[in-house]
């Protein structure tokens, strides 16, 4: 059995740590190794030797999750619910893996992925959407901006919500609101861009098990059935900067807003992105 020194206690020994491992579905995977190990280092390296690459990454990210929760409690007197902390940790791993994939692509492919906003085809408009979280105010905001094939501003909107959902849920709500808003405007051909790859992938992948998140994605899919010419795609954050800026700028607003004239907070960005 592992001795109860600091590392063991924080990462494995205390009941709160065990709760994280069990909630993550990993306790049965590591329990025998934990029981047999003479030290935390022995336990950790034994797991690395025994587990698959995917399992090792999941274990490593749970260790990071536990350390971050410990720091949040010590420095900020705050501790996130176990399931939320686990989901945020796994989302961080997913995003890191995506960045790693892009960094190993051939140079010619990377050059094709130009990180600037691109106008849609002439018969389409493009709508960029993003969510911004404001934990201190217990709220989040959605920003949406429509531009035409010349890059000219058409219309924008911001939507205000109370609460602190997971980032992926807030981004999914942003997509749902963008589809609904565009439908009400009577727009028929739209390219919708988000900077959350998790949400974009979820629209096309039905193999998920996050109940609240899945219900929002299901709403998005149901709405999209009515709009066959609404196309969803992922872009990098710098390409989605107009929508992100709108969402951030609406922090102090307590109501929804629509803009027929371009807002001063995005005017310079839009002008610089016109091709």
Structural class: alpha/beta
Write down the secondary-structure element order.
HHHHHHHEEEHEHHEHEH
Mean pLDDT: 85
CATH architecture of the largest domain: 2-Layer Sandwich
Supply the CATH superfamily name of the largest domain. Answer: Ribonuclease H-like superfamily/Ribonuclease H
Shape: elongated
Distance between the termini: 65 Å
Helical amount among residues, as a percent range? 40-55%
The number of domains: 2
CATH topology tier name of the largest domain: Nucleotidyltransferase, domain 5
Total E-strand runs: 6
Radius of gyration: 22 Å
The main pleated sheet reads as: 6 strands, mixed
Question: What's the level 1 CATH class of the largest domain?
Answer: Alpha Beta
Describe this structure in words.
The chain is of the alpha/beta class and 275 residues long. The chain has 2 domains: 98 residues, no CATH class; 149 residues, Nucleotidyltransferase, domain 5 (2-Layer Sandwich), CATH 3.30.420. It is built from 12 helices and 6 strands. The protein has a 6-stranded mixed sheet. Strand 2 and strand 3 form a beta hairpin. Helix 5 packs across helix 6 and helix 11 runs antiparallel to helix 12. 32% of the residues are buried.
